[in-house]
């Protein structure tokens, strides 16, 4: 968009790593304005995201973004398919649920006696939570139960000042 591909602090880069994630970010922003799904820009963006969602090799971060974008767009079928796929990649630990990038190790234990995940893991887990809660009609009890396990993990990632490693 602005032609700058360098980050001054790569730990704040998050999950942006390709055109699909960037397109999903932009589509989410347009839908949160809210622009209607019938708007030509949104309609075209959603078409691109639908094409991308059909690819089998999508990264877990990308799936989380796509699930939230389709939830905002009211596309229940795509939202459910992505959430079902994400469910298979979920990390369940200590009564909570989260997602992490393949091959990424969690950060070392901190002096606060608990580990904190890198910002991308916090972000993608938060997007999955948003996808669960952004549902028309309102989320079912089963989804709310899943959402509470996700929220438990996210809240465990707060630093002593109440903030998070993620810039989002």
UniProtKB/TrEMBL annotation:
Highest taxon of source: Eukaryota
Classification via Gene3D superfamilies: 1.50.10.20
One family name in Pfam for this protein: TED_complement
Xref: SUPFAM superfamilies: Terpenoid cyclases/Protein prenyltransferases
InterPro entries: A2M/Complement_sys, Alpha-macroglobulin_TED, Terpenoid_cyclase/PrenylTrfase
GO CC annotations on file: extracellular space
Entry's transmembrane regions: none
Alpha-macroglobulin-like TED domain span: 9-168
Name of protein: PZP protein
The organism of origin for this protein: Helopsaltes ochotensis
Organism lineage: Eukaryota, Metazoa, Chordata, Craniata, Vertebrata
